[in-house]
Amino acid sequence: MRPLIQKELSLCLHPTEIVFLCFAALVFVPNYPYEVIFFFAGLSAFFHCMSARENGDLAFTCALPVRKRDVPLARIAVAVLFQCILLLLTALCIAVKQLTFPAELLVNRAGNSANLAFCGFGALLSGAFNLAFFPMYYKDPNKVGVPFVVSSAVQFALIAVMVALRQFPFYAPLASSDLSHCGMKLAVLLGGLALYCALTALSAWLSMKRFERVDL
Amino acid sequence: MYALEVENLKKVYRNFTLGGLSFSVEAGTIAGLVGRNGAGKSTTLKSVMGLVSSEGTVKVFGKEFPKDESAAKEAIGYVGGGFRFYPNRSLSAVAKAVARFYPHWDGQAFRRDCEEFALVPTKKVRELSEGMKLKFSLALALSHGAKLLLLDEPTSGLDPLSREDLCDALLSLKARGVTVLFSTHITADLMRVADKILYLANGTLLADEPLAGLVGRYRLARFSSADEAKAANAIGVKAVKDGFEGLVTGLRGREATLDEIIIHLEWERRRA
To answer: Can you give the pLDDT at residue B38?
Structure first.
């Protein structure tokens, strides 16, 4: 698996994948739909798959001494690596913001406030993207655009639900921008991470199964 | 000992079926897979490599797909129709990524082959000519000590001198004990290097025998009429300038080239 991941990083990586990591800093922008940050993690996976397609990577890789079913796993592992780095950078930026910004600037009127629960929602958004994108992509790796449009639509639908939930009173503790209700926010974070792991594992399993039937 | 054993290899597409191929290639020999465009040559090689999902059994030096997929592929150097991968990467970057997959990668051999083939490792893949791309593929395959080379149409798109170079390279590989199976529709190359011919027509294996046996069996005879050809039991009789031509197994006519044998066998199959 290690050589496969190294090959993904050295031969298929698109420069924008690094640039998109910097978008974690969007949490510093006042009144902004911060959930969009996790759309960029999906966009990063899309660029990676497109770069791989333009390089004829899958046919080349499958001729190397690897099992065909391991090939999708390596690419998903790279996507997970970038999603986790983005999540960590976002959490870091949120911590800096909480410590340095005045209280009135911590309130987000355009979406959810940047807090622990938000990171949980971010993980859920990335997991949903993985489940929608990769199995569809590995059914026919020549088509990268359609899986991306579908998975982005899924992500934006979830973002709309998250923003709408903010209008309900029961959601207020999770939307708060201060350090109150930390227990509840932590539970949402852990729940989001657990869902991320489950959705990504299911995505990997489906992708491996589908890719074995693909004719290169 | 067999380098490659294929049994009942079957692949069904919507408009084409590769129908239950069985053949083997002895270690240290060169086998040519011939047939017209669309006969199933690339599908056969891709099925052997597991690049397309197919039915049947494939063994490489006794290691079976998909049970020992990694180990079997380790012994193979596959060159699928020129090196059209990673055009913007340098040769050394591609080689570095590939080397990690092979425990027996020989960096010195790679550098030596690059020198021998006049490949500059700092050059990008897109800067190479078709012939040089093929040589790069061969250099990669040889550096991990491939014992079986599967080459898909390696000579198409090459000028006569480059084709000659490749044929020389294949013969020197054979001398080093490497087994080669290559598909082509340029039969002149096969006459130069092949020990064995696998002749494929419309997904069916029509001939699997030593080159000398196939070429020695048939002669090309000319007839003044179709009836005369029929009386002589000629195979694949077709009208030509000033009469008819067909393959015969007797002493009549002249020695047939591999091209002529294939054309007339194909003609016979189509008429049938």
So the answer is: 87
For chain A, state the CA radius of gyration.
Answer: 18
Residue with tokens 């870091």: A92
* Contact state of B73 with A57 under an 8 Å Cβ cutoff: no
Q: Which residues of chain A have pLDDT under 70?
A: none
Which single residue is written with the structure tokens 């993980």?
A123
For residue A155 the two structure tokens come to: 């992500």
B53 near A CB under 8 A? yes
Percent of chain B with pLDDT over 90: 40
Query: Are B101 and A64 in contact (CB < 8 Å)?
Result: yes
Q: How many domains does chain A have?
A: 1
Q: Which residues of B touch A60 (CB under 8 A)?
A: 85-86
Burial bucket for residue B167 (CB in 10 Å: 0-12, 13-18, 19+): buried
| A15/B contact by beta carbon, under 8 A | no
Burial A133-144 (b: 16+ CB within 10 A, else e): bbbbbbbebeeb
Domains along chain B with CATH numbers: 2-211 (3.40.50.300), 218-271 (no CATH)
The secondary structure of B21-69, three-state, reads EEEEEECCCEEEEECCCCCCHHHHHHHHHCCCCCEEEEEECCEECCCCH
Q: Tokens for B60?
A: 């490489």
Q: Is B2 on the interface with A (CB under 8 A)?
A: no
Full residue range of the structural domain in which residue A7 is found: 2-212
The minimum CA-CA distance between A63 and chain B, rounded to whole Å, is 7
Over the stretch B22-60, which tens digit does the pLDDT of each residue have?
999 999 999 999 988 888 999 999 999 988 989 999 999
Q: Are B158 and B79 in contact (CB under 8 A)?
A: no
ipTM, 2 dp: 0.81
